[in-house]
Amino acid sequence: MTNLSHRIPKLNPLFRLQFEKAQASYVLLYPEGMITLNDSAAEILTRVDGQKSHSVICADLRDAFPSAPPELENDVDEFLVHAETKKWILYDA
Predict the structure, then answer these.
(1) pTM (two decimals)
(2) Would you state the pLDDT for residue 2?
């Protein structure tokens, strides 16, 4: 795993994660619009609670999806880096 394993992501307060029945998927709502998440992104972001580190999120996903590929941790790291770039998540200093 990368050096991100102990960082603790939290959802940016400008966004709200919720299940949208009309979309039949999780979405990120923000003042200017909405982002529809795919299933993988939703599984990761529903675990981002400001308390769990990358490694704990990966362990939760590994427990929930035991047949996940070996690169699951790398995929989670890549997504969280992308989410941070998009300002969907933040990290405390």
Answers:
(1) 0.91
(2) 47
